């Protein structure tokens, strides 16, 4: 059983000079491994590339891809987490010139979420922690995740499988570790992530599958006062797929037909 | 010459499971060491305690204080950087129960800023990177510092010793690695940090010294269109003390008498 690697070599610890530790100066991808393959590998690599461009981190994407695939082959099943940091730095925020990014791979078993989350649906905790609006970082899966840490610390009750987060302007944005979708009539809606949030891999996959099915899809600013008009709600991420949402803040929904249709499409197509 | 320690032991690397790396889940303090002592130690420890309370990180402040003092004694002169993370975690944002925070101490020489910065003054680069508004994290010196990384990457020209950052609402907040003060008539002004920014140790010290001198002090929302009314501007941090600001975005100021008075007070009282 493999455990973790840094820059291709087995390793259990990282240099104290790493800017990932000092400043959260890097990105990550949490990838599902099934039968030795990374699910949705191309999308993960594309998001990583986008993040590196926006953070000015030089990236050898072919090298990362080879290492990730080799790691998945050995792992066979579980979670492959990739952390890409800007590498070592000296004191101060200035970028090291040149930067030598560090590739960290960590293996973990697939999380043991209750099977009923996908089968029956989940309740969402109404998080009070709001997401700040920062267009420069919005959409990226970067290492600055204190907002998610604070939000997840708000509840212990296992009756809530996830929490829903708004931004500081009151828009619905995402779950703590998921994206969120709404069905309103024949339209599939999901929050715009231009100011905050993580543009999830499974969110992209759902959007593409829905468009391929001829569904109307809208990426929009959504507010809690619109929830009463929604017919179905679900969350998604790249590890668990889709969970129907049954309850949130006094609203309730069924695990509806469009959610079920997308679930079966995802289950059939996700690798 | 000592280099770095983790939890009291010499160490050059940190466990990959550390949540400081995974999420930037921790805090730091960058402290000046002179003649074996930490300058403004009490203030550093107080800010660390405040940060730990707000992030729900358990803290043995007496242990941290002892380790920091012992480290400073060995270092004699330079910079002592303390990183306090929430310690190891397993996958996911949920807090480890119980958390075992990790204390990381790193030594560095004092930065070699040009002596003229303090003697004559500096020019500030007008950063385009805006600070997001997040009251839950405002004021803390936490490890989520991608905004500072992006801001510092905006300029290479050494003619700018620092950059000035606004928040996403256009308020003046701080330098990339400093706080900022303004003198308007007989009043000393500094931006409120209730939405973003780091409440610097030297900022606190300047506020206290100014109040002790009977100066009028205001902590306020400040906007760039007020800059024309300012008589003096300076930045400060706990490593360099005070730098007069000579230029920013078409405005210019002298290194004025109140700035000089505060500089000499700081130089006389900073340990």
Textual characterization of the structure:
The structure is a homodimer of 271-residue chains. Chain A is of the alpha+beta class and 271 residues long. Chain A folds into 2 domains: 105 residues, Aminotransferase class 4, branched-chain amino acid transferase, N-terminal domain (D-amino Acid Aminotransferase, Chain A, domain 1), CATH 3.30.470; 155 residues, D-amino Acid Aminotransferase, Chain A, domain 2 (Alpha-Beta Barrel). Helix content of chain A is 27%, strand content 30%. Chain A has 7 helices and 16 strands. In chain A, strands 8, 9, 10, 11, 12, 13, 14, 15 and 16 form a 9-stranded mixed sheet that branches. In chain A, a hairpin with a 2-residue loop joins β15 and β16. Chain A is globular and about 50 Å long. Chain A starts with a strand and ends with a helix. At the A-B interface, β3, α1, β6, β7 and α5 of A face β3, α1, β6, β7 and α5 of B. β3 of chain A pairs antiparallel with β3 of chain B, so a sheet runs across the interface.
> Globular, elongated, flat, extended or rod-shaped: what is the shape of chain A?
globular
Order of helices and strands of chain A: EEEHEEHHEEHEHEEEEHEEEEH
Instruction: List how many beta strands of chain A DSSP finds.
Output: 16
Radius of gyration of chain A: 19 Å
Determine and state the CATH class of the largest domain in chain A: Alpha Beta
Which chains share the greatest interface?
A-B, 57 and 57 residues
Strand percent estimate of chain A: 25-35%
Instruction: Give the CATH architecture of the largest domain in chain A.
Output: Alpha-Beta Barrel
Ranges of chain A where pLDDT stays below 50 over 5 or more residues in a row are none
In DSSP terms (H or I, runs of 4 or more residues), the helix count of chain A works out at: 7
CA distance, first residue to last residue of chain A: 22 Å
Could you name the CATH topology of the largest domain in chain A?
D-amino Acid Aminotransferase, Chain A, domain 2
Percent in helix of chain A: 25-40%
Classify the oligomer. homodimer
**How many structurally independent domains of chain A?**
2
Major sheet attributes of chain A? 9 strands, mixed
Fourth-level CATH superfamily of the largest domain in chain A: D-amino Acid Aminotransferase, subunit A, domain 2
């Amino acid at each position: 059983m493999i455990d973790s690697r840094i820059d291709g070599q087995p390793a259990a610890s990282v240099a104290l000079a790493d800017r990932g530790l000092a400043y959260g100066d890097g990105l990550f991808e949490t990838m599902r491994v099934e039968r030795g393959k990374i699910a949705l590998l191309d999308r993960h690599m594309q998001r990583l590339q986008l993040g590196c461009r926006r953070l000015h981190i030089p990236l050898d994407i072919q090298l990362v891809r080879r290492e990730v695939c080799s790691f998945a082959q050995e792992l066979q099943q579980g979670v492959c987490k990739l952390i890409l940091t800007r590498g070592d730095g000296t004191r101060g925020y200035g970028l090291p010139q040149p930067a030598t990014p560090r590739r960290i791979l960590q293996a973990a078993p697939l999380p043991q979420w209750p099977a009923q989350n996908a089968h029956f649906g989940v309740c969402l905790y109404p998080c009070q922690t709001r997401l700040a609006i920062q267009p420069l970082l919005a959409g990226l899966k970067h290492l600055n995740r204190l907002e998610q840490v604070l939000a997840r610390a708000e509840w212990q009750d296992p009756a809530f499988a996830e929490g829903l987060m708004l931004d500081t302007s009151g828009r619905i944005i995402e779950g703590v570790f998921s994206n969120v979708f709404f069905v309103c009539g024949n339209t599939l809606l999901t929050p715009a992530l231009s100011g905050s949030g993580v543009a999830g891999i499974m969110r992209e996959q759902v959007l593409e599958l829905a468009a391929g099915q001829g569904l109307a899809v809208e990426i929009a600013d959504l507010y809690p006062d619109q929830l009463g008009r929604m017919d179905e709600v679900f969350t998604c991420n790249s590890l668990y797929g889709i969970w129907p949402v049954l309850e949130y803040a006094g609203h309730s929904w069924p695990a509806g037909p469009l959610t079920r249709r997308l679930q079966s499409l995802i289950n059939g197509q996700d690798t």
